[in-house]
TrEMBL record:
UniProt-listed PANTHER family: AMINO ACID TRANSPORTER, CYSTINE_GLUTAMATE TRANSPORTER
Name of this chain's protein: Cystine/glutamate transporter
Organism of this sequence: Sciurus vulgaris
Annotated localization: Cell projection, Microvillus membrane
Gene name per UniProt: SLC7A11
High-level lineage: Eukaryota, Metazoa, Chordata, Craniata, Vertebrata
Coiled coil: none
Subunit organization: Disulfide-linked heterodimer with the amino acid transport protein SLC3A2/4F2hc; this interaction mediates cell membrane localization.
Length: 479
């Protein structure tokens, strides 16, 4: 596909193609005029800013929503503290493994790039296929539903929030988010991080009561079949450590910045999350109330903070906005790299000439997000997306082990002990396999959609002798 005419044509409609660093690639060996340069604007200073952005991605997940479900599927509700701690350690192991991958394979794209490097184009295509059809729409729907619930909470203090109201507010908010410019959203990123930290500090502050620790390890009997779902909810809250690897080519001095950002952020986040759960258990909230609550942070605030409790759902809702904002940031880089490899239509890597946002990708993802938003509940969506996400993250980390033996002379500025990626990848793949039994419907659908990536690869990428009508439809999209 000839790049220069495409860029010229798309430019008339308000789009230009960005490169992996957000710039406009040159055509014909010469730099384009200054007025034609359009970039995916960076939000921060290359080093300190990436560290801040990485910490925000960790804190962006709805800890307060995942907490009850992690306790529900754990062996005993107080034992969910153990689950949260183990998930934090596992996330650290995964993050350290990604630090080695990111400093050894200095390309943007994260999971997609590492799977492409190790396992080849078929699995890499399937990875970006499920990102487009499952992971990104479902992840946006999940965090958007959390936003809708928390933002409506102050208006429904004495009654249950109607599910339709939550979904309508969520749909409206997704449209608002997708229409924002990068410059505007970047201005409030630090404020959103402050909101998340404030919510956590408010919750951690009242640590004082210990009556619920008297029988800390009593409760329901342990069940191995409940562990995958508890694992999904715990790991979901910590997820975000892999987003720095989506922008490796943009990181200043990645050999030092990536490991430093990962180690600092993981320690801070793990301590903050475990202390938040300890705070929940040291209040007068009973196990039954915890499990029945759809928004644990609100239940906690109502019990302990009095009139000030209205501030907590607002802070958490703003944190959810930061999550969705970060998702747009990450997906633009992933789709560009996949387009660069010829695995996605080139238009999905293009950016709006004024807003500097990946609007074509947003337009494709928006209807899929709306379908998931109105067709499923939050927790079934979590199970749905978690299957595909942790399957490919486990494969990517397993690829690190493969590279150790296949390419022992590969330059590795940062190297982790081999037991770290081995334990992490085994845990991911084991839990993914077990989840097919624990929740066969949600994870089964995710598995079937993942399998559709194989015929799609041969249809769109490998098959050369396409009919004329098919070439007209897709020939100008895929390289």
């Amino acid at each position: 596909m000839v790049r220069k005419p495409v860029v010229a044509t798309i430019s008339k409609g308000g789009y230009l193609q960005g490169n992996a660093k957000g710039g406009l690639p040159s055509t014909g060996g010469s730099e384009p005029p200054e007025q034609e340069k359009v970039v995916l604007k960076e939000e921060d200073h290359p080093a300190e800013g990436r560290l801040h952005h990485h910490r925000h991605h960790h804190r962006r997940r709805d800890l307060h929503l995942s907490q009850g479900r992690a306790a529900e599927h754990g062996p005993a509700w107080d034992c969910s503290l153990v689950i949260w701690t183990v998930c934090g350690v596992l996330s650290l192991f995964g993050a350290l493994s990604y630090a080695e991958l990111g400093t050894s394979i200095k390309k943007s794209g994260g999971h997609y790039t590492y799977i492409l490097e190790v396992f080849g184009p078929l699995l890499a295509f399937v990875r970006v296929w499920v990102e487009l059809l499952i992971i990104r729409p479902a992840a946006t729907a999940v965090i958007s539903l959390a936003f809708g619930r928390y933002i409506l909470e102050p208006f429904f203090i004495q009654c249950e929030i109607p599910e339709l109201a939550i979904k309508l507010v969520t749909a409206l908010w997704v449209m608002v988010l997708n229409s924002m410019s990068v410059s505007w959203s970047a201005r409030i990123q630090i404020f959103l991080t402050f909101c998340k930290l404030t919510a956590i500090l408010i919750i951690i502050g009242p640590l004082r009561q210990t009556q619920h620790f008297k029988d800390a390890f009593s409760g329901r009997d342990a069940s191995i079949m409940g562990l995958p779902l508890a694992f999904y909810y715990g790991m979901y809250a910590y997820a975000g450590w892999f987003y720095l690897n989506f922008v490796t080519e943009e990181v200043d001095n990645p050999e030092k910045t990536i490991p430093l950002a990962i180690c600092i952020s993981m320690v801070i986040v793990t301590i903050g999350y475990v202390l938040t759960n300890v705070a929940y258990f040291t209040t007068t909230i009973s196990a039954e109330e915890l499990l029945l609550s759809n928004a644990v942070a609100v239940t906690f605030a109502e019990r302990l903070l009095g009139n000030f409790s209205l501030a907590v759902p607002i802070f958490v809702a703003l944190s959810c906005f930061g999550s969705m904002n970060g998702g747009v940031f990450a997906v633009s880089r992933l789709f560009y790299v996949a387009s660069r490899e010829g695995h996605l239509p080139e238009i999905l890597s293009m950016i709006h000439v004024r807003k500097h946002t990946p609007l074509p990708a947003v337009i494709v993802l928006h209807p899929l997000t709306m379908i998931m938003l109105f067709s499923g509940d939050l927790y079934s969506l979590l199970n749905f997306l978690s299957f595909a996400r942790w399957l490919f993250i486990g494969l990517a980390v397993a690829g690190l082990i493969y590279l150790r033996y296949k390419r022992p002379d590969m330059h590795r500025p940062f190297k982790v002990p081999l037991f770290i990626p081995a334990l992490f990848s085994f845990t991911c793949l084991f839990m993914v396999a077990l989840s097919l039994y624990s929740d066969p419907f949600s994870t089964g659908i995710g598995f079937l959609i993942t399998l559709t990536g194989v015929p799609a690869y041969y249809l769109f990428i490998i098959w050369d002798k396409k009919p004329r009508w098919f070439r007209r439809m897709s020939g100008k999209s895929f390289k």
